[in-house]
Structure formats: C-alpha cells, structure tokens
Amino acid sequence: MRFVWAVVAFVLAAGLIAAGIAQRTVFMGPSTQETSVAVEEPAPYVLMDGDVLREHPGAQTLLVRGDGDIFAAYGRTADMEAWLADASYNHVTVGKDGELDVELVDAAAAGDDDTSTDAPEATPAPEETPADDGAAVDAGRSPVGSDLWLDSFTDTDALIADMQLPEGVSLLIAHDGTADAPDDIVVSWPLDTSTPLAGPLMAAGAAVLLVGLVLYVLGIRHQRRGRGPRRKGPGPLPATEPIDVAQLPPSERKAIEESSSKASDTGTAPADHSEDAEAVQGNGAGGSATEDDAAGDRKTEMRATPPRRRRMIAIPALALTALLATGCSADSWPQFGEGTPSPSPSATVIAPENQKPPAVTEAQAKRILQDVSATLSDADAAMDIDLAGTRLDGPALTARKTEYALRTAVPDTAVPAAIPTDDVEVILPEATDRWPRTVLLLSKSDGDDTVPPVVLTMTQQDPWSNYKVNNMAEMSADAVFPEVAAPWLGTSLVPDDSAFLSLPPGELAATFSDVVDAGEQSASYGLFDEISQNLAKSIRDSRQAVVQNLADNGAAATSQTAFDIAPADSAPVSMTTLGSGAIVAVSLVDTETVTPTSADAVIRFGDNAQAKALTGVTESAKGVTTKYEFQLFFSVPAQGSTEQIRLLAVRQDLLSVEVIK
C-alpha cells in the first residue's frame, strides 16, 4: 500500500510543479501593451498630448525610431503650445472613441488659435528669414537646450525613454527643428504579469514529492524485511515396509533375483547401494540448498540495487524542484503586509484658487543654474562676451564687459568666481503662465568655504529665450534670509509702487543712496539695519580715501573731487515672502569725478592700472570719471512692521573709467 500512496504522491507532485512552471511560462501573458502613432503628414515637430501617455495606467516607455539625432522633451502643455505658436506641428490627442487622432497644425493657424499665453509686445516671436527671391523661408528652431522643458532626451537613430508624466504635461518629438520629425513612434505601458500562485504551487509540489519519496523508501524497507513469499518444504515420507516378492509378477520377481545374484558376485550388499543412493540424494539435496542460498543472495542483492538507483534519481529531481521554487522572483509569490502606509502629519500650505503654476520646477531650476554656471565659466575662460550674453543681462552683463576689458589689458586681473551649484538652498519661482518670468535662487558651495553664497535673479523674456541672470550678489555672512514659499507653490512679483511694504520697491534704491550720501543725517537712516549702515559707511570711507590719496600726492590744491550715487537704469526686481514682505534687488551706480582746478594742472593716473587700461592714456587735462556698480538685495518688511530693511547680499563692480573731454 505504501507503493500505491507513493505513486499517487509522485503524480500529484508532478501536477503541482507543472502547474507552477506553466504559470510562469506558457500561461503568462505579454508584459507590455503598445500604441503606435501614425503620422501621415510630415512636420518638423510632433506634440503628443499628455492624455495619450496616460491612456493606460503605469509608467510610460517611449520608443522613437528615425535617422540621425532624435530629440524628445516634456513640459507643461501650455508652455509647449506657446513654444510652437509660430511653427507647424502634428498634434496627437485621444479621440472620443479612444483612438489616437493626429492633426496637422499649420503655423498660421497655431498663431491665431493660441490664446493660452500671450508673449509681450517687447519680445515678439522669431521672424522667418527672407530668401534671395524675397520669399519667406522658415529657418526652423532647434528645441535642444531650451530652459522651457522639464526634462529632455537625445539619442541617435533610436530613442528609448522611461517616464511617468502627470496631468497637464505633454511631450515634444523632433530632430533639429528643420527636418521632418520621426514618424515611427510607439508608446508602451507595463502589464501586471505577477503570478502569486506559481511559487506556492511549486513549493507544494516539492513537499508532496518529498512525501512520496518517504513513502517509497518505507515501502522498500518493509519489503526487504519481509523477504517476500517462501516455498514450502517436502512433507514426511511414508515408513518403509518389506515387499512380498512372491506376490510380484514373474517378470519383476526375475529382475529382482538377477540383481541380487549380481550383488552377491561383487560382494557389495544391496543396502550399501541404498546408502550410496541416499548419500547421493543427500549430496544432491545439499548442493541444491547451497545453490538456493546463493541464488537467494543474488536475488537479495538484485532487489537491493534498484531502490538505491531510484533514490539517486529522485534526489536530483527534488533538488531541481527546490531550485525552481527558490529562484522565482517576488512576482511568483503572494505579497503580504504591503498596505498603504499611514500618512504622517505635515505643514499645510493652502494655495489660492487662482494660483498660477510656478515658472520652473525645483529640478528644472537646478538644471538651469548648472547650465548658467557652466556657460559663464566657459565664457570667462575665453573672455567671450557673446557667449556670456547668452546667460547674462542687465547690470550683470555690463559688469562682465568691463571685467573682460580689464583682463585683456591687465592679465593679472582675477577671473570672476564661478556660480556655486552644489547646494541650491532657496528656489523662489514666480507663479505665472505668461512672460517674462523671473526666478530667485540662493546657492552655496559644499566643498569650498571661501566661496560665499550667491543670490541671483534670472528672467526668461519669452518662450523661445533662455533664462538670463540680471542681478547677482554675494550674501553676507551675518545676513539671515527670510522665509519664502515652497518651490512648487511659487510667489508673485511686487509692483514698484506697492503700498503694502514699508518702502515701495521703486523708492528703495534712491532712499539707500540718500543714506550713503548723508549718513546719519538722512531721514531714512533708521529704516535700514546695521549691515546696510555699515555698507553705506564703507562707501563713504572709500570716497574719503580718494581725497586723502590726492592730498598725499600733493594734488589737493590743484584738483577737486565729486561723488554721486544714484539708482541704475535697470528696474528693481521684487518678490514676495511668506511674511508679506519682499526681497528686492536693486542696482546703484556710484560716480567718482576728479577734475583739475587750473588750466595748467593735469590728472595723472599714476599706479592706477585699471584707469590706464580702460582709458588708454596715462593722464587727462580735463579730469576723469570712474563709475562703480552696486548690486544689492534687501529684505523689505510689510507695511506697519517694526522690522528694519535688512541687507542680504551685495556685489561691487567697476563699470567704467572715462576721460572727460
């Protein structure tokens, strides 16, 4: 009976293991589902709506095939449409029946229909380049390197990108903006191919197989102990009685008599023949017993050999099954204890209903800052003002021009420090869906303590332009940065004439200029904190140093000096903080004029290498004017607050040295 149960266990184990393996092989469905985009009319760009990518749940995998370099980027749908406002493109959307609709949008139609974003009049869209015959030719616009994208991908001949785009985000596909975009586009989504019963089935099959092997071994052991059925020995022989020869037939009686006479002649008693016969029979019986024992031993040995071989075959089978069961991935087993984790309490920030999206995301801002820093480092190394102009504007670009001129004439002039990008501590984007867009950043260096933190503002004028730094200054070690909104929320710009601050942003530069000129005599002196007052004092001290230098050189009687500090031509940049205050960036120009007091006197530059380099002369008969630029960041409190205006960061640059003519 043990063998019967063993066979049943083997059959059941084979079925369980086969069912488990089949779930991971023949019964397993496809791992992905795909959707192809059929582009019939070529265009330089393909804009794939976010609904297409979210048609099925899960992460999306984009596969684009084409000749040459392939570019793909994703960003906010409104930003994508604004960037394509003057271009022809294929727009891929999801139709009412769930099928993909591909519509060719002409450049003219795109410009007429796009009302989501209006570029400012001061920054019109790029114009078409006229051909030799007077006809307009679309020069194309490369999407590579635009700051508008949240992320981008490039590859050659085939591009594969994994992404998971949220609502309100679309995908752009192109080559270089001139050639027709690739038309072999496939989007795939993963399918759930987990088989939670495969592992338990194979494990159960291995367990049943082990039970069958145990039953089989027990059956063999029981059979060996019982030796199986044995033959019965011969029964008792009847007692030997004398034969009456007289009653035998004559022929038999004659034969007996003849044998008796022959025995008498040989001298051997018949009894001896009987004994010999018995001996022979005994020997024969003994020989038979010995042969039977040997045969029995051989049969026992033959019976013992097959079970050992079967065990040797069964053990690898069991090990293989165990290996298959343990080698299965987590998809082959049921998952327990993966419930939704309990949310932890966090600070709640309630955004207004009409809150606009931030100009950039946190990751986007960090990427842009790294590109700005790398571009400026390359421009500084080559003293390429055109390259620097791709990432600088306003006061920051003006200061760079002077620095390059000085480095050309005075090679010992120090190279401007690179913008640190190791730790971007503050990202404050403007919350808007229009242009221009402004972002404020505070970045620090992790490895070099000698590099001060840098506060800067950068502005994107239109969808087709990159962000440019227009204000940049080094943060003071004693300054405390105010609390600002989270990067995902953004903030708003403060008008120059805002009455909600203790001092309107448009008046801040002029007010601080008065503090510099008048010192403690200024009516606004008490509005500023100690750091601001110390800066004003250092400017006055530098002016006094110029006067003292003229006196030390014996020119006090033959020369005179004049100083004036005033707001620069650039408008202030003001962004609100959480305390209803604002961070205001302003620029001041400090003008220093030295003129002779008599017609015979001249102003000699002496050891002033910068003046010689920028003017190209060593002296001036009518005098010289030197201009310095101050880029300042202030924290201005709200109206009615008792706090002072705090200086956050300052940067001083030499703007120009000009001979008075």
What would your notes on this structure say?
- This protein is of the alpha+beta class and 661 residues long.
- It has helices at 2-24, 50-53, 77-83, 107-113, 198-226, 250-266, 270-326, 362-382, 385-388, 395-409, 505-518, 530-552, 609-615, and strands at residues 32-38, 45-48, 60-76, 89-94, 100-105, 129-130, 136-137, 151-163, 169-174, 184-190, 423-429, 437-444, 454-460, 468-475, 559-567, 573-576, 582-596, 603-604, 619-620, 624-636, 646-659.
Summarize the structure.
This protein has 661 residues and is α+β, with helices and mostly antiparallel strands. It is built from 13 helices and 21 strands. The strands form four sheets. Strands 11, 12, 13, 14, 15, 16, 17, 20 and 21 form a nine-stranded antiparallel sheet that branches. Strands 1, 2, 3, 4, 5, 8, 9 and 10 form an eight-stranded mixed sheet that branches.
Task: List its traits.
661 residues; alpha+beta; 8-stranded mixed beta sheet; 13 helices; 21 strands; 34% helix
Overall pLDDT score: 81
Number of DSSP E strands: 21
Tertiary shape: elongated
Put simply, the count of helices is: 13
Could you tell me how far the N terminus lies from the C terminus, measured between alpha carbons in angstroms?
124 Å
User: What proportion strand?
Assistant: 15-25%
Structural class by sheet pairing and helices: alpha+beta
Low-confidence blocks of residues: 114-138, 268-296, 298-305
Work out the radius of gyration.
Answer: 51 Å
Assign a percent range to the helix content: 25-40%
Largest sheet: 9 strands, antiparallel
